[in-house]
Amino acid sequence: MEEIPPLQPAEDGATVGLFWVSADGVSVGAPATAPAPNVVLTAEGPQVTGPHPRQWAWADLLGLEITEVPARSAPQRWATHAASFVAAALDAWVPSSPTEMTVSVVASDGTYRTPAHSSAAVAYSPREVALSRRLISHFIQGTATPAVMTEWWVQTRPTKILRSREREAVLELWLARA
Question: What is the 3-state secondary structure (H, E, C) of the chain?
Fold first, then answer.
């Protein structure tokens, strides 16, 4: 099996839902360093970069699914954070690699699957996952474009990591514009 290079998120960007948003574009999950695959969402359609590049137009897609998403309720996320803090304090903590999700692009000529790494520190909220999936469905229906995400980044440039409720509010803003 190919070894995937470590993730190196852009200096300027933010996790919002299942996406990493920056002025340079939108990735599903954390952006990866070449030659690792990366799923980029553009106004024209999704692109897979890396060793097996592909691209599609939104109008040509039947679906785009993200599975194996790490989703936990707020109490579960807090418990995981607390456990990590205690383990670090006891010098028993070993950082783990990000959770690997699967992105499936469903087109008339078949389904293409590629890995994407979660950009959530612990996990996404279930609501954040649902809102992200609704937004993707708007891209496929042609009622929204990922440009709304990069425009938001250029206009706001958050200076801190957004909490799950803040990320959900941004996703709702994008959906309202759809």
Answer: CCCCCCECCCCCCEEECCEEEECCEEEECECECCCCCEEEECCCCEEEECCCCEECCHHHEEEEEEECCCECCHHHHHHHHHHHHHHHHCCCCCCCCCCEEEEEEEECCEEEEEEEECCCCCCECHHHHHHHHHHHHHHHHCCCCCHHHHHHHHHHCCCCCCCHHHHHHHHHHHHHCC
